[in-house]
Amino acid sequence: MNVPALSFDQVTxxxxxxxxxxxxxxxxxxxxLLGDATSGVGTLGRYALALDxxxxxxVLVLGENLAELPRRAALAFRRRVGYLPAGDGLLQxxxxxxxxxxxxxxxxxxxxxxxxxxxxxxxxxLRLQHVARLRPARVNEEERRRAALARALAFDPxxxxxxxxxxxxTTRTAAQILELARGGESAEGARRTVFIVGQSLPDVLxxxxxxxxxxxxGRLELET
Amino acid sequence: MFAPIxxxxxxxxxxxxxxxxxxxxxxxxxQAWGTLPAAGRxxxxxxxxxxLWFTALxxxxxxxxxxxxxxxxxxxxxVRELGRIGSVELIGTLIVVAIVRELGPLxxxxxxxxxxxxxxxxxxxxxxxxGEVDALEGMGIDPVHYLVxxxxxxxxxxxxxxxxxxxGVAILAGLVAAFANGMSAGHYFDIVLRSLAFRDAGVTLVxxxxxxxxxxxxxxxxxxxxxxxxxxxxxxxxxxxxxxxxAIFLTSALxxxxx
Lengths: 224, 259
What we know:
The structure holds 2 protein chains of 2 kinds. Chain A is an alpha/beta fold. In chain A, 28% of the residues lie in helices and 24% in strands.
């Protein structure tokens, strides 16, 4: 039996009128959950990675409940998941190159040469070579988002969680970001599972996101 | 009738809780030494060197200026005044007890707390507000390993080294002051070295380490305690510097009581 990449079980989101959500994100699919700013859908990525605890319910990531793992194990497990937080979360005192290198330098035993090789691939894929040596404050929003995605994909994770990834981007850039997050195609669908939370999804991307949920007045509706 | 007591009680309970949280944070920072992954050591070392540049090396001119002016003024006055009553030998005790043992570590710690404590708190608070701390967690990097440990180590090394520098410069500036007031260099060093006990040097160095530990933990604690509002950054800096200075003075008083 296939284990869902993400499984939300009776998870409460939202402050004003809380909603209780139960749904799965199947592997090798791009799934989005949209909701307005007060719906609380933006917190689901944080709940999945156990950065915050939901008031009720539990989240399984690749079959594991990170909230129950010891801290060291939870930190190690997170390297299997790519996380693009809302905004970008880039470290402002590091160049884009060093931002992308950071998880590899800190969380792997690869040599600096091997890390450099991996980063060059990522930077080329995300068209960031020309700004790689600049700090986040000196590049535009699109480049920052690309760099944050490169960092999220550094370990070539099997699951990618994207928080409001397309806000403020052109549809063309948004499409590129989605394609890079999917990581190409496999026999089962996308090579990676992609879970997107946000307020809206550009129309041109609808065909590339297999499951589109929307949280409306506390109820989860599947868009067709 | 009980309302004022309740207000005071609530305030005291909040402060005690904060001290408890600070103690837990300090303990977790100490513990983190043992859990820093091998790969992370390389990165942490790079951050440490960067922090040493800002915290120790850039503070050297200020420490030299403060130390030499303080020592010159104190020893000039002392040689003049004590000379009148024929007790010039007491400048040895004065320079060792007052400057080397007490003021040296204290002023050095205050300089580092003012320069770097505020910077550490503001930087970590900004990291938190900008979502960088959560991003680190999301990448599987413990923020204590990446952000706190290098600053913690740099503060200890910096205060320790700058205290030695402060005391060395103070002794040399005292020599200039004594010489300017008619005392020979040989006589000056004879008095100072006779007054300087191994225990004084030890207490000074231990103070350097303890004050460094305070500056390494208190600002980091306040910096990471902010939530998501940019307006909390200056508040965190203010709390960090006030908390550090208070802890440094209390600890200094404790040293006097204990030693």
